[in-house]
Design brief:
Layout: E1 9-10, H1 15-23, E2 32-37, H2 41-51, E3 68-71, E4 88-89, H3 100-119, E5 123-124, E6 128-132, H4 135-150, E7 158-160, H5 162-168, E8 177-181, E9 185-187, H6 189-202, E10 206-208, E11 211-218, E12 228-234, E13 240-250, H7 256-263, E14 273-282, E15 292-295, E16 307-310, E17 316-319, E18 323-325, H8 338-348, E19 357-367, E20 385-388, E21 395-399, H9 405-421
The protein binds flavin-adenine dinucleotide (FAD).
């Protein structure tokens, strides 16, 4: 569990008194201006952006006030997907030239490097190699390189020649070519979230932990036009209390479909599909590898392939694989997947010591499409869903925030703020089902 900065925490029974202290300043007679549901990296970044927004007009009034409440169901922020991932700062190679994932990843990457440098969040621009093992994979790499080279996205890639590859990473096998992404890096996700939370609270934002949202009601004849009533259950006592807010941001990760379905009629309900990724730690210091190594992604795999990442101490770990599960709580790492992972790792790192690999942890990708749908750029690609939903006032809805969500978190925070306060129209996702 990560250390925290000075942090005010409120349990659900205190929400009413908390709300009373804000209600004199919140617009439209609501208790809060913004309620963000979900204290992962993305919810924290959104809450920070909204709390620090110095505005002359709120979405529903001319009030100068601004109060932001972040609701998290666990005793601490950041204990779900945001602390169960590869901690890679992605460059933006994979999601096609026009997707929201690409746009937010590239913007988010640059914002994240600046943020980390400025606020002392441990990170390193270690670079990554995507390694092909045959001609077909080499062609797939050439396709990625071509998009990055021609689309003007600001995603540099470079071919690494055979000799150079052998010199720099003698243990890595890449029979079909190596494409380098120098902008890829790693970040300490816990330290990042601690910094985001600290800034959120310094801007006057309030975190309520142990506060599971169990009901949401849009108020007014125009749904949400008079704000929103949110019912929160206290994890310790089971008691429920409700608060009102002018705007609501659903950033609940694996729980986001449940929040969505509390708001819309049954015929508009959505479901998420859960793709677990198992990780394996490596207890030996040989072979030594100095950069991230990714295989070429298999079409429709649901992930980027079991790759080699480094932590900030230079230790190697491997994963995540893709295991479709029924429950978002199925977070136990599946040791039975180790032999398959070893087979994948040996394709690019043949000298790995199998006995030094042990099951480590797992995270779950909240997918908007089931197994079999293509997960990276191309036909069937599923983008982030970030949208002010039609027919509702003051609701920004985030669904399917899988990778590269960590990289994109600051850009998503800016986007949500601009959706509520920007002067121009911020292009969000298309409506679901269109
Ligand atoms: C295996 C794996 C590897 C990944 N690797 C990378 C990577 O290397 N780089 C990268 O950029 N991205 C990566 N990602 C994606 C990244 O981790 C996520 O996109 C990001 O962490 C999502 O953050 P979030 O805040 O949306 O969700 P979460 O971290 O899941 O936070 C959502 C929060 O909402 C809370 N919540 C849910 N329901 C309720 C409720 N009813 N009431 C109150 N609170 C609620 C939860 O408790 C949780 O804390 C990876 C993801 C996975 C699964």
């Amino acid at each position: 569990m990560f250390a925290r900065t000075a942090q005010r925490q409120f349990q659900s029974p205190h929400l009413r008194s908390l709300a009373r202290s804000f209600s004199g300043t919140a617009p439209a007679g609501t208790d809060f201006t913004h309620v963000v549901i979900g204290g992962g990296a993305v919810g924290l970044a959104i809450a920070r952006a909204l709390a620090s927004h110095s505005h002359s007009s709120s979405p529903s009034s001319n009030s100068n006030s601004n109060s932001t409440l972040l609701l998290e169901r666990h005793p601490h922020t950041g204990t779900e997907t945001s602390s169960r991932n590869s901690e890679v700062i992605h460059a933006g190679l994979y999601y096609g030239p026009h997707s929201l994932k690409t746009r937010l990843c590239i913007r988010g990457r640059s914002a994240l490097y600046s943020f980390c440098a400025r606020y002392g969040v441990p990170h390193a621009r270690v670079g990554k190699w995507v390694v092909a093992q045959d001609e077909a994979q080499g062609e797939a790499l050439a396709g990625i390189h071509e998009v990055c080279r021609t689309a003007g996205l600001g995603v540099p890639t470079r071919w690494v020649g055979r000799e150079e590859a052998r010199r720099l990473e003698p243990e890595v096998r890449a029979l079909g070519g190596v494409l380098e992404s120098p902008e890829t890096g790693i970040v300490d996700s816990h330290a990042l979230m601690t910094a985001l939370l600290g800034q959120f609270e310094e801007s006057g934002g309030v975190l309520a932990v142990n506060s599971a949202v169990v009901g949401v009601e849009a108020l007014g004849s125009r749904a949400g036009g008079d704000g929103w009533r949110i019912t929160v259950r206290d994890a310790a006592t089971g008691s429920e209390s409700s608060i009102t807010t002018s705007t609501i941001i659903n950033s609940a990760g694996l729980g986001a479909a449940d929040i969505h379905n509390m708001i819309v009629p049954p015929d508009k309900h959505v479901r998420l599909y859960y793709a677990k990724g198992n990780y394996f730690s490596y207890a030996s210091s040989t072979p030594k590898v100095r950069r991230l190594i990714y295989p070429v992604t298999a079409p429709g795999a649901g992930g980027l392939g079991t790759h080699l990442t480094l932590d900030l101490a230079g230790r190697m770990r491997f994963g995540p694989d893709v295991e479709w599960v029924e429950s978002p709580s199925d977070l136990a790492v599946n040791a039975a997947r180790l032999p398959a992972a070893i087979a994948e790792i040996k394709k690019y790192l043949p000298s790995i010591d199998e006995s030094a690999l042990t099951p480590d942890y797992a995270g779950i990708r909240p997918k908007l499409a089931p197994a079999g749908a293509v997960a990276t750029g191309g036909g069937g690609f599923v983008d982030f869903h970030i949208r002010k939903e039609d027919g509702f006032e003051g609701w920004v809805n985030l669904l399917g925030i899988e990778s590269p969500g960590l990289t994109s978190c600051l850009a998503i925070g800016e986007m949500v703020r601009d959706m509520l306060y920007g002067s121009g129209k911020v292009e969000g996702s298309a409506a679901l089902g269109t």
